[in-house]
Amino acid sequence: xxxxxxxxxxxxxxxPFSINYFNGTIMLIETLDYENVKKYVIQIQARDExxxxxxxxxxNVTVEVLDVPDNVPVIRNSQFDIYINSxxxxxxxxxxxxxxxxxxxxxxxxxxxxxxxQYFDIDHFxxxxxxxxxxxxxxxxxxxxxxxxxAMTTSASFSFYIDSEGAFPAxxxxxxxxxxVYENVTDYFIMQFETKNVSNGHRYSIAxxxxxxxxxxxxxxxxxxxxxxxxxxxxxxxxxxxxxDMNVTPMHTSYIEVTVEILDSNDNKPRFEQAVYKASLKxxxxxxxxxxxxxxxxxxxxxxxxxxxxxxxxxxxxxxxxDPITGDLRNAIPLDRETxxxxxxxxxxxxxxxxxxxxxxxxxxxxxxxxxxxxxFSKLLNVQISEGTKIRDVVFxxxxxxxxxxxxxxxxxxxIAESQEKEIFVINSKxxxxxxxxxxxxxxxDRYRMKVVVNDGLFSVSTTLTITVTDVNDNAPxxxxxxxxxxxxxxxxxxxxxxxxxxxxxxxxxxxxxxQFGISPESALFExxxxxxxxxxxxxxxxxxxxxxxxxxxxxxNGVPPKSGVTNVRIVLCGSIEKVSARDLDSKESxxxxxxxxxxVSARDLDTTEPxxxxxxxxxxNDNIKFSIMPVDHxxxxxxxxxxxxxxxxxxxxxxxxxxxxxxxxxSTIVGILPVDNTSSSSSSSxxxxxxxxxxxxxxxxxxxxxxxxxxxIGANMNNTFSIEAIVKNSMLRHVPPSICQVxxxxxxxxxxxxxxxxxxxVSFNETTSKExxxxxxxxxxxxxxxxxxxxxxxLFCISKTGSLTLCGAPTQREHYYTLGLGILSNGYIRSQTTxxxxxxxxxxxxxxxxxxxxxAWVRENISPGIRFLRLKPHLDDQQNxxxxxxxxxxxxxxxxxxxxNSGVLSTKxxxxxxxxxxxxxxxxxxxxxxxxxxxxxxxxxxxxxxxNPPEQSPIKVFVFSEESEFFGNIDQLYPPDExxxxxxxxxxxxxxxxxxxxFGESCAGVFESVPSxxxxxxxxxxxxxxxxxxxxxxxxxxxxEKIIDNAILIEFLGTDRMAAEFLSRLxxxxxxxx
Length: 1075
Hints:
This protein is mostly beta strands. The chain folds into 10 domains: 60 residues, Immunoglobulin-like (Sandwich), CATH 2.60.40.60; 190 residues, Immunoglobulin-like (Sandwich), CATH 2.60.40.60; 98 residues, Cadherins (Immunoglobulin-like, Sandwich); 95 residues, Cadherins (Immunoglobulin-like), CATH 2.60.40.60; 98 residues, Immunoglobulin-like, CATH 2.60.40; 57 residues, no CATH class; 87 residues, Cadherins (Immunoglobulin-like), CATH 2.60.40; 74 residues, Sandwich (Immunoglobulin-like), CATH 2.60.40.60; and more. It is 5% helix and 44% strand. A hairpin with a 4-residue loop joins strand 66 and strand 67. It is elongated. The two termini are 31 Å apart. This is Cadherin domain-containing protein. One of its GO terms (cellular component) is plasma membrane. Keywords: Calcium, Cell adhesion, Disulfide bond, EGF-like domain, Glycoprotein, Membrane, Repeat, Signal, Transmembrane, Transmembrane helix. It is a single-pass membrane protein.
């Protein structure tokens, strides 16, 4: 039975049956009555939940009700006082008891009783005949008892009176008392009866033999008609026709017997013995042996029941033939399981009637596997693992495909490598899982190459496995010196002068080794270049009172989490020293670093059959070098190096920059933005400009953007102007001097420009919301204004001079949310900035439901990717038709599954292993259309198990609670420990323990009788094909005595594994903290 099929009865309101939702078992839910309904047709619906919800199939199941004799016979006679002919001879009919039993296939037995029973006999048709002459006796009284096969009886008493022969009507002699008629004819005239010796009129009737009223006789004319007969129900009728005088009570009646034989018509089609036939044979074999014999029966006779068999569908390649007379099925050619592993043949049984009738049956033929195909690796084995991987963690699973079946693809895996690598990487020979045996250190070795071999018992194949160790941020930057000492010439140094450089190294790679420098906050007179480590002075040293400074410089990497190091810097002010100049290009060092990277690229690319890709780099660490790598052939490359142009260095647009600022401005007011040319659009941080301003008490600069921000209130005694120097540089172009400009701040007493108090505002709107979305209640000076700085490409939003943000446009395509950049400008300069997030919500009723059965699906493990297993079917509460848009919103789940955005069909992207993970919870965003907010539905996907792992020889523990001192009952599935949840073997007791009465049935179910409470150790055997597993069972039987019962709560959960899984799935969704 396929665990993914769900069953239901489509016409359940009209049949007294139910069906198990999971396994398709049909159950009776009401008492049947054959006499009421003899046949039911059940319409079974099967739905495959792995595929589309529309993948539904129907089949009709016919249930024929078998009759049992549960009804008492009934005597239908209405005359109990009867005249009999005085001239009646021995053996002639006296009277006929018309007894019937509506049960089918029952035989009635008749018996006489009473004082006068010696005068009469009664046969199995209920015909009472004279057995002895009357003599002088004129009245007789008898009783008749009728019994069926179940000894249920009914009785009636009759009185007979002698009268002269002339008072009785008499039948004329019949030419032929036996007649024939074809079944299924209706209202068909058979014959006519005639009488004599009638003076007072007469009437005809059917006295007996027609319990089901299949015949009808005209009471006046004596014409006999057949209403409807079925030969398969009653092939022959013994009718007793009566003629009686009229208007006389009791009546004078005579009888005549007529035999009606029913001839066959072809009204029954052949019927197969079985509903479904199954057969199997091994591939590559051609045998004359019969795979199976199909047999059909026909209730008709003669040629109407002569059956011919043929294959009408599914015989691909004429692989099979069937004997038309016997129904013997054979294969005609050798079969290949890897081409077709199962044939579904449609067999026809056709009779020889006119017209012919037929029936069909399905024959499923399974082609059994032979090991005739080698295993194959599913893909190139290149793996990246983190050096932080823990010992015994799974590194990789060797995945192979084998066209052969599981029975012939039990692969064993091994690694051919140096002994050291075998210790680092351990492979499970049965599962192919490679786990880590020793800790990794990327800095010692970052790549391993080994050969993986897979053997299926006959074939052996191998491939190369390359494992690359990726970096973990496990090294902090280390400064080259614990203490740096630099000297400053007090007289020859100025703002921006470089006084020295610190350097640090990080042994990690990639972002984990990218270092940024910073300086302790209390060192306000100095600044460090974040990329180069160069320390510069932020104010002319002539104003320094101290002669020596001690500062701390930090080096942090870009790892997650970052690691950092610290060093101490001693700065000494002294007399004149030679000015430090920018370091010349160290080509030798750059080429050396470039060679390392080039070799790594070559090793990566030249090891494959693919051509080497062009590679370019703008700079190498701290040098202004540009280089490119171009392939020549499979084994060589050309490296070009050139010095970066100085024209890319950032320079101030003006050497003198003037900003105006109100003395009453608030903290965080943007004073202005330093204007710069030659800023690169590259995302590389090495090409971004870095800004510095001279040390002061109330202004600071954002190093990346050049925005000058007010950091402290302006004192009332501040002069009308204030000047500082600013520097912009590219840290990578160290041979190019920085650009310097003079910044002049002009103070005024105007009303201050307001500042946005929040960095971000969030608002929502819908169709019914007023057009105003947000209002800023600021007092704006005359020279200030609001402005939308970005995110308003469609001109959908407007902001007024008074700070009212409104919806002012009609979008051609409305988004779900918008992000606007707002600014407050004064004389064209940005003074404050903020972000506004605007969320659009739809007012149309978009509430929909996903029914519980549509929230769960099952995927079998080890199935190839691309399987479509579920279609989501949202149901709208307002019953409106709508198109939905679907999207998986979890990045991790997107690696395993994909969903068609329009149809909602879920499919797999990977092959699953239930033993690693047996369930997935997929959050899916569902939009009714592109203008609605999504609703999130969680879909649970269970991984169905296949028996792909051998059991373990480990003990099992079983705990049983018994209400008696001895345990009586069954315990299911006492299998040995197994990663799989399904097994097909059998269990038995290895050592028969006389004191324990334990037997095993199907599914390793243990039947326990009189097992005393306490602990028992039992040795068990498990057999599955040729596999034998020996394991121990520790059985602990606890007697629930009164003390335990009084102090305990027992909870019993009854249900199948699948019911429990569905219950837990709903619980998981409801209680998110359990997930």
